[in-house]
Amino acid sequence: MNKQLLEPDIGTGYGIDDDASRLIAQYDARLAKAGDAGLAPEADAELRALARIFDLSAEGPAAQLWPRIRSLLTKQIPASTAQEDVMTQEPMTVLVVEDDADAATALTEALDDAGHRVIGPFHNAEAAEAATALHQIDLALLDINLSGEKTGVDLAKSLKAHWGVPIIFVSGDVAQAARHSDIAAAMIIKPYSANDVLGAISRIEKAR
Question: Measured between alpha carbons, how far is 66 from 73 in angstroms, rounded to an integer?
């Protein structure tokens, strides 16, 4: 196993990408300007969508929601699942779609060591979709920005529509994930640890 997976971050060279940084700046400015009047309906809906994909309650005023969401965007998403829960997961067949070769290899090794069966990894949506037609997939881990013409969002929509596969976005493109939160069971921001991924899988497994 790649020992780097047991360190705080998976892969190399990752950080919260520009979309996350812009989102933070955007909502800081929106809430400062809105004051007691609150956010405009569209901005408020997007904020509550972010809360849901981060496993936070979407209830309450936007001014109270935003500090919690902002903290997760800044510090990544820590896995709250206990280590013993991660180690006792039932094996699942997991589709991995990630166009960074090092991250894909490390992620595959982590899943394999945890007892899961991995389909992939694939670096584009077209190859992943073709493989899904040949295997029964329990869960898909999808990067959003891929090397082919289709994005991870396009692939997620197809997997949900045709096979009802639960989706976890594994990406730094928080804004895209928020806009498509209705098709995602969870999101993990890069950089992430092996336990972040296994913890998210465990939560989905318990909910099935």
Answer: 10
pLDDT digits (tens, 9 = 90+) for 124-154: 999 999 999 899 999 999 999 998 899 999 9
Q: What sign has the CA pseudo-torsion 142, 111, 202, 3?
A: negative
Q: What is the CA radius of gyration of the chain?
A: 17
Task: Please answer whether residues 143 and 98 qualify as being in contact, where contact means their C-beta atoms are separated by less than 8 angstroms.
Answer: yes
Q: Taking the domains of the chain in order of start, what are their residue ranges?
A: 18-75, 83-207
Tell me which H or E stretch contains 109: helix 101-113
Q: What's the gap between Cα 138 and its chain centre?
A: 16
Q: What class has domain 83-207?
A: alpha beta
pTM of the model: 0.64
